[in-house]
Specification:
The protein is mainly alpha-helical and 96 residues long. 77% of the residues lie in helices and 8% in strands.
Length: 96
């Protein structure tokens, strides 16, 4: 059997492997992955928020431009209606 010595982290063999985590069922690597994931998510969250804010501002600008275009089309349509009503009135008066 390999000789063991105690450290503050638990029982360790000469190769430096922590034997306590294997015996207790508590895997340190998984807890580190979880902590790294939390850190990664914390650093990504502001980036996600800024991208979302940019996307929503872009969408707002797009829809305002669409509204302006539709308003211009409505004005042109009213002008077309007025033009054809005038032409109809001129044709009617020429017929009479």
């Amino acid at each position: 059997m390999e000789s063991q010595y105690r450290t503050s982290a638990g029982i360790t063999n000469k190769q430096g492997m922590n034997m306590r985590s294997a015996h207790s069922g508590f895997d340190i690597s998984k807890s580190k992955e979880f902590k790294f994931q939390q850190l990664a998510m914390l650093s990504i969250s502001p980036i996600v928020r800024s991208v979302q804010r940019w996307w929503l501002q872009r969408a707002e600008q797009h829809y305002l431009i669409c509204a302006d275009v539709e308003q211009q089309r409505a004005r042109e349509a009213q002008m077309n209606v007025a033009y054809y009503q005038k032409r109809a009135a001129m044709a009617r008066s020429a017929r009479i």
